[in-house]
């Protein structure tokens, strides 16, 4: 009886549970039918998605072009290979095979085209089949295929092999302005994204907006007759035009690469700017990189805007500009060169030579005297007033150039020693672009221009100009009269017989105003590195000198020099090569044909006077002769006694202990005259001005020795 009651109780409970479950299920079905949702998922939408084929329509990334519309960065089409290995993708294999049905044949024919071993391709396919995958890709080798590779594979007629069309960023000029243009690459989602330079700076403008296409399909991915197709058009990215000029930039890159291969410097920068507008026409760094083939990149940064340096003596142009503007600069006033000591500093400021004695401030600037600049700041301007000019030239702030990662230098100006060293470009730091910006005031009648690289941005979908840059005056630190006087002083650095730029930075067709720089590099035991190569050699040059159309600033850090070479050799090569060719390309009228004031003197009777007497007499005429050797007696000259000597003529005085001079910049005629005086077996090649010689400078020369000289018009 008890057993029966237990069975009845169990049946009752089981039936009750069943009924509860039944009503729950019925209720659930009813709820789903009424609401059309399961766990918040709309079943109709889910079914629609299952029947709908959706794909994105990629937007083309905007192009980057130079000022004349030449392509600098653009999208090119590449292809990604994939294989469908699922047999279900071939519903009618007797009619058509849509999947890879012969693994060995497919592997054998694909392998040589995509650059993979046959066994590797077979392994990829076989592994996909074993894992019951629908499709499989082939890694790096199967991506970024060219159109030629795609067509070659298509000609094989291999079932189950398909392609996805993609875009790749391509830079037609390789290393050209790499740190300016920057780099863009595809991310994990195969979306091209800017990483550095303009590509990163303007990524939101260049990227564009993807479109899409959707239609209903069957389970075999076949489009239905009534497919409800929806297309959303893609919007291509905006096109960016730069101020860079491809021709000038190419000339610059060639010169930089040449110097890099010969001198192997640690760092180099070069900038070419239009001083009237602030437009950057060329900008290059070394080390650089080829964005099409990266390899091991040593330097991603654009040092011109991102790396402050102690600029050295190029700052002296701005020091005398301040003094001239204040009416405190008398170029004919004399001072004692060599060293300068004030009570507030422990060690004196010194010049690079202690042999000049009492010289004028004009000569001090030409010789690049640190003492002259220190005295101007301390004795004439005063440190506070000089600081006002440094700020007026914006050395205390970034330029605002439209390039990423700009860093401003630092004015170290708290203590008297810092105030003195800043006057000649040591201690305080600045970026090359800060110095270039300040230099526009010297070349542009006192008006300082904001430098810029982006000229315009245009929407290719509508041809609407989104952004148009215009020249912007950002300061007027000096007057036109002061700027003209500074240019004259800078021109004398090139033309004066005592100028640090003489025979080095002359151009064949144009006059040059410039200032050389040799900056110490922080880091040595005494605060700076030591050794003849451990400097940043630089040059700030502009031409034509009376109304500059181009400014160029070059820095070369720690080049490997031969015993006979100075640090100006690699710098001058870049300047002369780029400036001369750049001005001709821009159709700037050469100005060396203009009339100049040439003075004429009678050559003294050098045989009847001592060497010192002769030099004193020639100096009174304003003539600085070239002295061959260290002897105390003059034994020959290229101009006979009593003959006329022009102030523009190179006068050669041969001593009784002749040594080889540096012939760089000498004309064919002058070198020939020297060879005759020294009785050398002279042979030459080329025309224009000397740039290479077989006998190193300062080496003793004997009668009859062979001398070979190469001449070039790039001067």
UniProtKB/TrEMBL annotation:
The protein's name: serine-type D-Ala-D-Ala carboxypeptidase
Has UniProt tagged this entry with the keyword Kinase? no
Pathway assigned to this chain's UniProt record: Cell wall biogenesis; peptidoglycan biosynthesis
Give the UniProt subcellular location, in the record's own words: Membrane
Which family does this protein fall into?
A: Belongs to the transpeptidase family.
Reaction equations catalysed? Preferential cleavage: (Ac)2-L-Lys-D-Ala-|-D-Ala. Also transpeptidation of peptidyl-alanyl moieties that are N-acyl substituents of D-alanine
Q: Supply the Pfam families for this chain.
A: PBP_dimer (PF03717), Transpeptidase (PF00905)
Q: What is its EC number?
A: 3.4.16.4
Kindly indicate whether the keyword Mitochondrion belongs to this entry: no
Top-level taxonomy? Bacteria, Bacillati, Bacillota, Bacilli, Bacillales
Which stretches make up the PASTA domain? 597-657
Keywords (alphabetical) are: Membrane, Transmembrane, Transmembrane helix
**InterPro entries in the cross-refs:** Beta-lactam/transpept, Beta-lactam/transpept-like, PASTA_dom, PBP_dimer, PBP_dimer_sf, PCN-bd_Tpept
**Record organism:** Amphibacillus indicireducens
State the gene name recorded for this protein: pbpB
- Transmembrane portions of the chain: 12-31
**SUPFAM superfamilies, per the entry:** beta-lactamase/transpeptidase-like, Penicillin binding protein dimerisation domain, Penicillin-binding protein 2x (pbp-2x), c-terminal domain
EC supergroup of this enzyme: hydrolase
């Amino acid at each position: 009886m008890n057993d029966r009651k237990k069975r009845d109780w169990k049946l009752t409970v089981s039936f009750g549970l069943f009924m509860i479950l039944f009503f729950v299920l019925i209720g659930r079905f009813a709820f789903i039918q009424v609401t059309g949702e399961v766990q918040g998922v709309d079943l109709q939408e889910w079914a629609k998605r299952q029947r709908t084929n959706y794909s994105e329509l990629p937007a083309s990334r905007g192009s980057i072009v130079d000022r004349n519309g030449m392509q600098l960065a653009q999208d090119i089409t590449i292809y990604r290979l994939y294989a469908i290995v699922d047999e279900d993708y071939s519903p009618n294999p007797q009619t058509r095979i849509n999947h890879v049905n012969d693994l060995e044949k497919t592997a054998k024919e694909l392998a040589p085209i995509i650059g993979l071993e046959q066994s590797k391709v077979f392994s990829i396919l076989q592994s996909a089949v074993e894992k019951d995958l629908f499709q499989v890709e082939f890694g790096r080798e199967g991506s970024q295929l060219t159109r030629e590779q795609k067509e070659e594979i298509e000609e094989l007629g291999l079932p189950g092999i398909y392609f996805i069309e993609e875009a790749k960023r391509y830079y037609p000029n390789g290393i050209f302005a790499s740190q300016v243009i920057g780099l863009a690459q595809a991310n994990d989602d195969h979306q091209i994204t800017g990483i550095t330079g303009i590509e990163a700076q303007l990524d939101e403008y260049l990227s564009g907006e993807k479109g899409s296409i959707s239609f209903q399909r069957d389970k075999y991915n076949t489009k239905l007759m009534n497919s409800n197709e929806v297309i959303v058009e893609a919007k291509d990215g905006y096109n960016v035009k730069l101020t860079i000029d491809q021709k000038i930039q190419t000339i610059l890159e060639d010169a930089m690469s040449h110097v890099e291969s010969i001198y192997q410097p640690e760092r180099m920068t070069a900038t070419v700017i239009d001083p009237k507008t602030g437009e950057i026409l060329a900008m290059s760094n070394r080390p650089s990189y080829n964005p099409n083939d990266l390899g091991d990149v040593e330097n991603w940064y654009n040092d011109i805007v991102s790396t402050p340096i102690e600029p050295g003596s190029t700052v002296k142009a701005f020091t005398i500009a301040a003094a001239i503007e204040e009416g405190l600069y008398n170029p004919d006033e004399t001072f004692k060169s060599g060293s300068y000591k004030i009570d507030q500093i422990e060690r004196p400021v010194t010049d690079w030579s202690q042999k000049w004695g009492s010289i004028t401030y004009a000569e001090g600037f030409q010789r690049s005297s640190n003492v002259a600049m220190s005295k101007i700041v301390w004795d004439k301007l005063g440190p506070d007033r000089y600081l006002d000019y440094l700020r007026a030239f914006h050395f205390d702030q970034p330029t605002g150039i439209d390039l990423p990662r700009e860093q401003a230098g630092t004015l170290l100006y708290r203590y008297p020693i810092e105030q003195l060293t800043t006057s000649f470009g040591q201690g305080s730091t600045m970026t090359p672009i800060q110095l270039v910006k300040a230099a526009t005031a010297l070349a542009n009648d006192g008006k300082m221009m904001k430098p810029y690289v982006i000229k315009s941005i245009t929407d290719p979908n509508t041809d609407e100009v989104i952004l148009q840059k215009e020249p912007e005056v950002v300061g007027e630190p000096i007057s036109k009269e002061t700027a003209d006087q500074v240019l004259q002083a800078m021109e004398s650095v090139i033309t004066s017989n005592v100028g640090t730029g003489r025979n080095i930075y002359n151009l064949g067709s144009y006059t040059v105003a410039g200032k050389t720089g040799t900056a110490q590099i922080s880091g040595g035991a005494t605060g700076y590195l030591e050794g003849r190569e451990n400097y940043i050699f630089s040059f700030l040059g502009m031409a034509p000198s009376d109304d500059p159309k181009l400014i160029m600033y070059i820095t070369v850090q720690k080049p490997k020099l031969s015993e006979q070479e100075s640090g100006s050799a690699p710098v001058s090569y870049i300047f002369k090569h780029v400036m001369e060719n750049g001005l001709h390309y821009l159709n700037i009228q050469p100005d060396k044909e203009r009339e100049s004031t040439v003075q004429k003197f009678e050559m003294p009777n050098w045989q009847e006077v001592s060497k010192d007497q002769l030099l004193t007499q020639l100096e009174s005429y304003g003539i600085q002769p070239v002295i061959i050797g260290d002897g105390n007696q003059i034994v020959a000259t290229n101009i006979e006694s009593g003959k006329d000597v022009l102030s523009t003529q190179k006068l050669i005085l041969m001593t009784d202990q002749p040594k080889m001079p540096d012939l760089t910049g000498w004309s064919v005629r002058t070198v020939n005259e020297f060879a005759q005086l020294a009785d050398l077996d002279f042979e030459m090649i080329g025309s224009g001005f000397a740039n290479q010689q077989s006998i190193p400078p300062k080496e003793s020369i004997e009668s009859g020795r062979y001398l070979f000289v190469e001449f070039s018009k790039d001067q």
